[in-house]
Amino acid sequence: MVIADQILKEIDGRLHFLDSIGLDYVTMSRTARTLSGGEAQRVRLATQIGSGLTGVLYVCDEPTVGLHPHDDHRLIGTLTRLRDMGNTVIVVEHDDAMMRAADHIVDLGPGAGEHGGKIVATGNVAEVMANEASLTGAYLSGRKRIPVPEERRPGNGKSIAVTGARENNLQGIDVEFPLGLLGCVTGVSGSGKSTLVYDILYKRLAQAVAQGRDRPGDHDEITGIEHIDKVVNIDQSPIGRTPRSNPATYTGAFTPIRELFATLPEARIRGYKPGRFSFNVKGGRCEACQGEGYIQIEMQFLPDVTVPCEICQGRRYNREALEVTLRDQSIADVLAMTVETALDFFWNYSRIRSKLETLRDVGLGYIRLGQPATTLSGGEAQRVKLSTELSRRATGRTLYLLDEPTTGLSFEDCAALLRVLHRLVDHGNSVLLIEHNLDLIKNADWIIDLGPGAGNRGGNLLAFGTPETLAQVEESHTGRYLRNALGVEAQVGVAD
Known about the structure:
- The protein has 496 residues and is an alpha/beta fold.
- Helix content is 36%, strand content 16%.
- The protein contains 19 helices and 15 strands.
- The chain has helices at residues 5-20, 37-49, 69-84, 96-101, 125-130, 135-141, 193-210, 247-251, 254-262, 265-270, 319-322, 331-335, 339-345, 350-361, 378-391, 411-426, 438-441, 467-470, 477-486, and strands spanning 57-61, 88-92, 105-109, 118-123, 159-165, 173-178, 182-186, 221-223, 230-233, 294-297, 305-308, 398-403, 430-434, 446-451, 460-465.
- A six-stranded mixed beta sheet has the order 9-12-13-7-14-15, with helices on both faces. The protein has a three-stranded antiparallel beta sheet with strand order 6-5-8, with helices on one face. A two-stranded parallel sheet has the order 1-2.
- A hairpin with a 7-residue loop joins β5 and β6 (173-178).
- α13 packs antiparallel against α14 (350-361), α14 crosses α15 and α15 runs parallel beside α16.
């Protein structure tokens, strides 16, 4: 014991931490890939925070990602204990409960991109709430809020039904997903939501509709597949892994822009085709950097460094291509415009305008058309994908799946995202979310709640129906938090 004392203390500290943030049900030998998003997030926190040091500055970037409001208070309790031990904890966060628990808030803004970057408000929660200039304060104080829809959509009468779902911790449940509405799968972190929606539903539908290769999770059968003709999974992965990919190319706005430049008198005199205005092929691009706009310098033993190309000054094109201008703006100037500026500039060109309008509608008016995909955040990449889907012609029979789309989004961004999702459903499509954010859950037409706990304590179908129905279900943790969000009084006493 004398020899093992320090080691046991370390092990004990970490195990206590895992237990206090609600991971008491996880077996030590679980493989990392079977952990849910919220579970993995808490294990990562345990590695850093579980050692119980003092006099340390901890910086957490959105520690509540993937956590149900039920798990939030445990995490907040842990962070406050860290503070009480003599540490400083800085959190980058959009979560309502976390902000209210903070001692000091620094609010950046007022907008995003070039409309932001200023300190709008600082102080405790009350001071930020009282600040008229702060958007965050407006939502925290209730001056602004995401409204509850006046009526719930009834759906189109068709549905997809999963029977005998028993992959991972699912307990052989039968679940029906109504179509033609905004559906939401809820439950505490680790209750089996992603297993049901991705491992079983999405993989089976992808096999049937899009010749997918992945093997679906264990279940008996899925009926009603004939009611949809397309299934789209919109996640937060980057829209491209290289700087050549950007919002203009991804959304398809760049093709009509190049075609427009090719029709200009100067371009026609020189015999330039649309390809001349592409930075991916020889002809118009700067050959020194091959259209990338910068050069990568390999540093031995150090990460590579990128510097702007000396020949084109980061503009990607050669002199000849830049001499063709539309109202004094070259193709490089157009790529440097923000979506809002470009929308005014191309207002009379309907093909370009429609693509840019959807980007603005999802709240991305501040990003630049030629901004490299590698510099977009997860939430931005997701909304670029959503805007691309919005600008496509709706078949009215598409099912969109989104796993926690509010990750990294502020209150204002959530409101913009909700407007887009409602538009997709109004076009006749079906949207199914996995979500912990109460603002999105209360906007759903139909909720499927799994639980009651996580791991082997979860995997059961607790309740399904409208948010108002769920708010009355005593066993449901989601229902308990929904009551406050909807202002619904529980018919029975609130469970502890």
